[in-house]
Amino acid sequence: MARIQIITIILDLLFIAYISRLIIKGKLREEYAIIWCLCTLVLVIFSLWRDGLQVMANLFGVYEPPNLIFTGFIFAILIYLLHISVVVSKLQNSIKKLTQEIAILKETQTGDKTKPADDVPPSN
Hints:
The protein is mostly helical. The protein has two domains: 1-50; 65-112. It is 81% helix and 0% strand. The chain contains four helices and no strands. Helix 1 (3-25) packs antiparallel against helix 2 (30-48) and helix 3 (52-60) packs across helix 4 (65-114). The longest helix has 50 residues, at 65-114. It is elongated, with a radius of gyration of 28 Å.
């Protein structure tokens, strides 16, 4: 096994350990950690299987194996950005709804205090 393979495998394992630590501390949600773990797993597979990238490039009809890496990661990033956009849109709608509910609650609280009582005559 070549030195670069060993270094890559060690770095990948350290990265997975770091992801696990972030999950345990509550700084990274599990749904996002899955994507990071899958990408790291792909790197481990290609670190162990030296000719794997060439085989995959031939399978997909790509002439240069590094182009397959760039294309694959660009596609993965686009899918991930779409997912993040959906999550942000849902959060934005939730924040808007909560803000409206808070405004209504504040209005009902202050409206009760400023409303004059029916049975108290106005002072002249």
